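Annex B.
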Amino acid sequence: MQIETETRPDHFKGPVTVGDYVLKSKLGEGSFCTVWKAEHRLSGQEVALKQVYPSRLNRQLRNCFDCELNFLSSVNHPNIVRLFDVFRAEGCIFLVLEFCAGGSLASYLRHRGRVQEQIVRGFMQQLGAAMEILNSHHIIHRDLKPENILLSVPDDDAVLKISDFGLSRYVHPSDYAETVCGTALYMAPEVLQFQRYDEKVDMWSLGAILFELLNGYPPFRGRTNVQLLQNIKSCKRLPFSQLILPALDPDCVDMCSRLLSINPADRLSFNEFYRHIFLSREGVAT
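Serine/threonine-protein kinase ATG1t: predicted structure tokens.
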């Protein structure tokens, strides 16, 4: 689901209230949910209200939704979007979530283009801090992408927050997942090849996000998933922009290349990523 620009539905003739919240505008929608910007009718607190349609959830999506609820209910971390409340109304389930005024990282990239390496380091430190929580709970997000990373404010010093755990899943360290899901441009090759996989699919996604932050475009493209996979497999060297490559920290290039290793066995694990010298050299995670 993409949480992007705000649009006010044409059918809104006046204030629409759901539970204790007044709907202000639509932030985004997916196949089984809609996200609204809303305001608590008494306190005035702005929130993101995720409206989930249970009738549209198959067994696998229901399991993912249960995982999302259980995980978000159990964590309170600055780099993971907060869940304040859950309630039922009009046959739907509503998740009351933290509203992030800075929009998504995808929107940030569209407006800023490629990002300076020092800012990228800070962003990746924050994502690492969030992924440490997922890792400790044995949660695979399975849809990490710029659209699902939100900013507290639309500035370079924003707090980044991982959101939309609608495809997330608990996977025991000795087990694997098999369901093909996610967004193709950020999907690990083992998923594209219908192979079983583990938490390293999220590491690939982080590598794709890191590459896009540095270059302003994703590492691999393709008109179809088959072509995308072919382009990944035929790649001998990541297509870094020659405008930035000479000035990039070699440790940054190393981390990106190792996150985007086609063979999961060669790919950085979470611990290897989080302890990588590129992240540890300056500063700590927010």
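The first helix runs from residue 59 to 74. The chain has two domains: 16-98, 105-280. Further annotation is deferred to the next reporting cycle.
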